[in-house]
Amino acid sequence: FSMKDELLARLLRAGGEPISGQQLANDFGVSRTAIWKHIQVLQEEGYILETVKKKGYVLKSAPDRMDAARIQTHLETERIGQVIHHFGSVDSTQILAHGFVRDGAADGTVVIAEEQTAGRGRMLRPWESTAGKGVWMTVILKPDIPPHQAPQFTLVAAVSIVNAMKALYPELEPEIKWPNDILLNGRKCTGILTEMVAEADRIQALLIGIGINVNQKIEDFPQELHTIATSISAELGREVDRAEFVAKVLYYLESYGDQYVKNGFSPIKALWEKASATIGRHVRATTLREVIEGVAVGITEAGVLEIKTASGEVKGVYSADIELC
Ligand code: BTX
What we know:
- The chain is α+β, with helices and mostly antiparallel strands.
- It folds into three domains: 3-61, Orthogonal Bundle (Arc Repressor Mutant, subunit A); 68-274, Bira Bifunctional Protein, Domain 2 (BirA Bifunctional Protein, domain 2), CATH 3.30.930.10; 282-324, Roll (SH3 type barrels).
- 31% of the residues lie in helices and 27% in strands.
- It has helices at 3-13, 21-28, 32-44, 68-72, 93-102, 152-168, 232-236, 242-263, 266-274, and strands at 48-52, 56-61, 84-90, 110-116, 134-141, 175-177, 181-184, 187-198, 203-213, 282-286, 291-299, 305-308, 314-317, 321-324.
- The strands form three sheets. It has a seven-stranded mixed beta sheet, sandwiched between helices. A five-stranded antiparallel beta sheet has the order 13-12-11-10-14, with no helix packed on it.
- A hairpin with a 4-residue loop joins strand 8 (187-198) and strand 9 (203-213).
- Helix 1 (3-13) packs across helix 3 (32-44), helix 2 (21-28) crosses helix 3 (32-44) and helix 6 (152-168) crosses helix 9 (266-274).
- Bound molecules: ligand BTX.
- Ligand BTX is lined by residues 92-94, 116, 119-122, 125, 127-128, 136-138, 180, 188, 191-193, 209-211, 213, 225, 229.
């Protein structure tokens, strides 16, 4: 971790008590001036720090940011999030994550940004990623499963996010729209984009891209999203701590991801169906080849959506846009 992160972690742990510059300098093996420089960087980022004479630095207040040290104070995982690369503004965490994978990133590495200027959804659609308001992250996983089992990780991620929302904000009733949307009161607040780097028979890495609208007001979204998008805070009526929320998402992602790899898809499938807004509904599925209308009857062990058409035929859909009719 960077020295800035270590310093921030120390200040957070001190819980409002001063820490002396000399002490920090000794512990990090650097000069007091070096410490002072990092304190200045934190101040520029919005952390309010006070210098108490003869005693040292005190952290008075922290802005809503997702610095590694902030997420890690809440983290309950063994692997996911042990390495976090946090950025201010990037084009897309997904693009950066591919670079980290090429450089041999460890299983569980998280790439997270305050803002994305070229966030993307499926089929290269744009993903709106307002600065400082959402969770824009890519989690790099290296599960020991064959490539054909990778798509189910989108559903594992969806179940994880739903459970993180329910654990922290029990007032919310998140629902999953197959395969990768999470809705609050019928509006989209989350998108998931799973990409894979693989050889013929083994996964080298999964890149689970997660975009969650957290603290936006409806006016913060561009006009075309006003009627279809929402955020956690718009539904709750208050702002929330994004770092705490990210830690909870990572916790469930590790626990359900491990469960999937160990015990197969059945337990996840049950959780998914419980949170589903799709099953039992009349849907219109637009795939690259055709439009299928009917009642969504369930998902298979492979995560495929099954739709029963008017003629009684059950069709499996691997990838599509779903409209709930
Ligand atoms: P998707 O293709 O299902 O959804 C994209 C569509 O959703 C857009 O065409 C637009 O209509 C709508 N949309 C765009 N932005 C938002 C938003 N903020 N809230 C609600 N609706 C929106 C979903 O693709 C997958 C999104 C993954 C995003 C993450 S963020 C971290 C990572 N980096 C990156 O570039 N992508 C992923």
